[in-house]
């Protein structure tokens, strides 16, 4: 599209609205404003226009402001103070006048009944070139008016967790498009996971966008997504979608996810119970017939040959009280791990405490083994007063069991 077409047809520039759904109410909580231009009876996206840095700043701001003004006027006609209007602003353009003109428009609309706490400002962190501290102070200033802040386009380009944390947004918008690749990399999932932990720490809600198919919605639901947006729910359109448009569908989908998740958790629980019994029985069988821990590990390795590839024993402070017994082709002793300390590992002490009080075994989450790089789980078990048995379960075994990976 020729930028001149936009500038000479300013009165053909119109807002489209894409609905944003909330998981807790299964209905629309707001709309993102998207710029369109009507050319030859077709509404074309203005996305490229706004991202084209060859177009002088003042033109892009003029078009943006014109859409904003129209959008707020239409939004006010809904007369629903629970709804939010999500507005995209280029942080670089916003900072040109330290955010003044944007705020002026909002304050002007406030006189017409707009509540500023209905505004969610969407900015992109990774293409911001200015001083992040200054942007932070502007957002802080906006907040005093009740304006909420969303960081947009997380996951599309490399995001800087440090800067996102500093900006302390209310909402993180995460793009789920990469999930549709035939095989998204494990690191993509890991990055999303880190972002969800960050969101939890800084008290930001997760909004997953570009949801186009069911499994993306399921992913969003399962990974702490409070808000959802995408073609699978609603396309951008000229009119505001009715707030309960997808309510029945969402409720239905959630029920399916809940059932399947509960089933998985049940499996996990039953597996843990059974495995606990198995270890108990093995230990009963072995009884006191071992001379030292190395001997005990030798016996255990025979009994657990079908599932494990590494077994060792630690005290409750994480100091290893035995060697490792480790299986590659066959079981071998690794003496070098004796007295190594594992208390620094995530959840180590918490899990020890749990076993001490429950007096039963505990199955870890799935994680990558540092040595083999394989996805594994560890089953730990209280062996005696303050010694604990650690049984690393191999990927091949977990793969065969239902719902363990
Ligand atoms: Ca956006």
How would you describe what is shown here?
The protein is an alpha/beta fold. The chain folds into two domains: 232 residues, TIM Barrel, CATH 3.20.20.450; 114 residues, Beta-Lactamase, CATH 3.30.450. The protein is 40% helix and 23% strand. The strands form two sheets. The chain has an eight-stranded mixed beta barrel with strand order 1-2-4-5-6-7-8-9, surrounded by four helices. Strands 10, 11, 12, 13, 14, 15 and 16 form a seven-stranded antiparallel beta sheet that branches. Strand 8, helix 9 and strand 9 form a beta-alpha-beta unit. The protein is elongated and about 90 Å long. The protein binds calcium ion.
Residue share in helices?
Answer: 25-40%
Query: Termini separation (Å)?
Result: 48 Å
Give the class-level CATH name of the largest domain.
Alpha Beta
**SSE class:** alpha/beta
What's the architecture of the largest domain in CATH terms? Answer: Alpha-Beta Barrel
Which regions are unreliable across 5 or more consecutive residues at pLDDT < 50?
none
Which ions and ligands are bound to the chains? Answer: calcium ion
Discrete helix count: 13
Task: Estimate what percentage of residues fall within beta strands.
Answer: 15-25%
Please name the fourth-level CATH homologous superfamily of the largest domain. EAL domain
Secondary-structure element string: HEEEHHEHHEHEHEHEHEHHEEEHEEEEH
Give a count of the beta strands, DSSP E runs of length 2 or more.
16
Average pLDDT, to the nearest integer? 94
Shape: elongated
Radius of gyration: 28 Å
| Largest sheet strand order | 1-2-4-5-6-7-8-9
Classify the fold: give the CATH topology of the largest domain.
TIM Barrel
């Amino acid at each position: 599209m020729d930028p001149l077409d936009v500038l000479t047809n300013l009165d053909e520039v119109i807002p489209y609205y894409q609905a944003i759904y909330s998981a807790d109410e299964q209905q629309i909580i707001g709309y993102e404003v998207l710029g369109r231009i009507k050319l030859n009876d077709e509404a074309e996206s203005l996305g490229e226009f706004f991202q084209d840095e060859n177009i002088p700043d003042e033109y892009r701001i003029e078009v943006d402001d014109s859409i904003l003004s129209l959008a707020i006027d239409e939004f006010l006609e809904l007369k629903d103070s629970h709804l939010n209007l999500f507005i995209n602003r280029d942080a670089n353009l916003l900072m040109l006048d330290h955010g003044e003109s944007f705020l002026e428009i909002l304050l002007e609309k406030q006189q017409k009944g707009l509540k500023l706490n209905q505004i969610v400002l969407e900015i992109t962190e990774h293409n911001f070139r200015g001083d992040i501290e200054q942007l932070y102070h502007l957002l802080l200033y906006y907040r005093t008016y009740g304006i909420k802040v969303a960081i947009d386009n997380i996951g599309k380009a490399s995001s800087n967790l440090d800067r996102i944390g500093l900006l302390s947004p209310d909402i993180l918008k995460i793009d789920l498009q990469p999930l549709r690749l035939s095989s998204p990399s494990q690191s993509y999932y890991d990055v999303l996971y880190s972002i969800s932990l960050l969101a939890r720490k800084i008290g930001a809600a997760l909004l997953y966008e570009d949801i186009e198919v069911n499994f993306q919605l399921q992913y969003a639901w399962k990974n702490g997504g409070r808000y959802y947006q995408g073609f699978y729910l609603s396309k951008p359109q000229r009119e505001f979608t009715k707030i309960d448009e997808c309510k029945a569908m969402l409720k239905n989908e959630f029920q399916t996810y809940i059932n399947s998740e509960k089933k998985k958790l049940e499996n996990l629980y039953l597996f843990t119970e059974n495995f606990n019994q198995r270890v108990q029985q093995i230990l009963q069988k072995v009884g006191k017939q071992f001379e030292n821990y190395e001997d005990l590990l030798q016996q255990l390795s025979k009994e657990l040959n079908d599932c494990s590839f590494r077994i060792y024993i630690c005290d409750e402070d994480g100091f290893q009280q035995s060697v490792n017994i480790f299986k590659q082709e066959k079981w071998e002793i690794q003496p070098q791990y004796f007295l190594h300390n594992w208390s620094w590992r995530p959840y180590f002490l918490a899990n020890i405490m749990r076993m001490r009080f429950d007096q039963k075994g505990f199955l870890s989450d799935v994680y990558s083994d540092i040595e083999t790089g394989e996805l594994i789980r560890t089953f730990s078990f209280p062996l005696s007063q303050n010694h604990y048995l650690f049984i690393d379960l191999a990927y091949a075994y977990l793969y065969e069991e239902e719902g363990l990976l």
